[in-house]
């Protein structure tokens, strides 16, 4: 909602100020479709040349994060800690019984309670691979933490591809606006014998290209890139919370201490309250 409000406010301030200053929208509206075709088409085409089809799809999908925000919400963090609590409790009491959960998470009675986590392959890989390695005596906390950091950084790098793509488009849009403006000037020069009134409209139409390139770059696409990056950072915090629990588990801390270490590392706007999490864990025990 805030993103839509920000976009609307930007348009109102820019074009409202233009109208109040005595400007007329007619020349902009007349040139806009053609300028947008040249500038937008060139930007998308250049991005397609430098990226794969999967990257194009991923960037389009990630752009929705401008309006939706992070994939993970506060309730998801609460559920994550519940999943990890149950898994490390099983690992302490019955290491053999843990294998059924980490080898076939789709059939695990623990994972199936929380379908959003079950659908996230990155989260499942971190949880299951780490617990599986620990069961094979690869349980040095320092080494596991280093390995998880590398895996999370790799995930971040992959998720930030859309950010870099949007930022590259933003960087190129002002120059593409100049290209459109130059084409407009070329068109104007072909009508140099026309009266000043006609030439004025032609020159104004050419300058719409410069305006549009700068406006799209700094008022829309660059802010979109920043918002997507913030959402990616929030998503990565979800995997860091998993790491904190699992590393604390390898340090042989009690399960509730493992969860508290992770809970404190969660950003405050997603962090479940201590009492809230404690009530959820008690509810799990009651249903066990």
Account of the protein in words:
By secondary structure, this protein is mostly helical. It has 13 helices and no strands. Helix content is 82%, strand content 0%. The radius of gyration is 27 Å and the shape is elongated. It has one domain. Helix 2 packs across helix 10, helix 5 (74-93) packs parallel to helix 11 and helix 10 runs antiparallel to helix 11 (196-250). The longest helix has 55 residues, at 196-250. Its main location: membrane.
SSE layout and pairing:
Layout: H1 2-20, H2 25-50, H3 53-63, H4 65-68, H5 74-93, H6 95-103, H7 115-119, H8 121-135, H9 141-159, H10 161-189, H11 196-250, H12 255-265, H13 274-287
Helix pairs in contact: 2-10, 2-11, 3-10, 5-6, 5-11, 5-12, 5-13, 6-8, 8-11, 9-11, 10-11, 11-12
Uncertain runs: none
Count of strand segments: 0
SSE topology string: HHHHHHHHHHHHH
Mean pLDDT across all amino acids? 90
Domain count: the total is 1
3D shape: elongated
Computed over alpha carbons, the radius of gyration is: 27 Å
Measured distance between first and last alpha carbons: 40 Å
**Helical stretch count?**
13
Helix content: over 70%
Structural class: mainly alpha
Strand content: under 5%
Most strands sheet: none
Subcellular location: Cell inner membrane
GO biological process, one term: chemotaxis
Membrane topology: Multi-pass membrane protein
Domain Motility protein A N-terminal: 5-94
């Amino acid at each position: 909602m805030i993103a839509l409000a920000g976009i609307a406010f930007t348009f109102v301030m820019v074009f409202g100020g233009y109208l109040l200053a005595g400007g007329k929208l007619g020349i902009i509206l007349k040139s806009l479709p053609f300028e947008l075709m040249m500038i937008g088409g060139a930007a998308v085409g250049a991005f397609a040349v430098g990226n794969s089809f999967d990257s194009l799809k991923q960037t389009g999908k990630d752009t929705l994060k401008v309006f939706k925000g992070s994939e993970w919400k506060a309730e998801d963090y609460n559920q994550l800690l519940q999943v990890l609590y149950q898994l490390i409790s099983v690992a302490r009491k019955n290491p053999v019984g843990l294998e059924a959960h980490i080898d076939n998470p789709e059939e695990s009675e623990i994972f199936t309670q929380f379908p959003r986590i079950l659908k996230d392959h990155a989260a499942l890989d971190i949880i299951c691979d780490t617990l599986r390695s620990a069961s094979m005596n690869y349980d040095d906390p320092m080494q596991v933490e280093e390995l998880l950091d590398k895996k999370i950084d790799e995930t971040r790098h992959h998720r930030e591809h859309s950010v870099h793509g949007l930022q590259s488009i933003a960087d190129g849009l002002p120059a593409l606006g100049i290209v459109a403006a130059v084409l407009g000037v070329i068109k104007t020069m072909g009508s140099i014998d026309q009266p000043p009134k006609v030439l004025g409209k032609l020159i104004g139409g050419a300058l719409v290209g410069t305006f549009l390139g700068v406006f799209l770059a700094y008022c829309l696409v660059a802010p979109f890139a920043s918002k997507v990056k913030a959402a990616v950072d929030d998503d990565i915090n979800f995997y860091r919370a998993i790491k904190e629990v699992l590393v604390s588990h390898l340090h042989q801390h009690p399960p509730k201490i493992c969860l508290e270490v992770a809970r404190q590392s969660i950003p405050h706007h997603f962090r479940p309250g201590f009492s809230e999490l404690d009530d959820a864990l008690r509810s799990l025990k009651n249903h066990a």
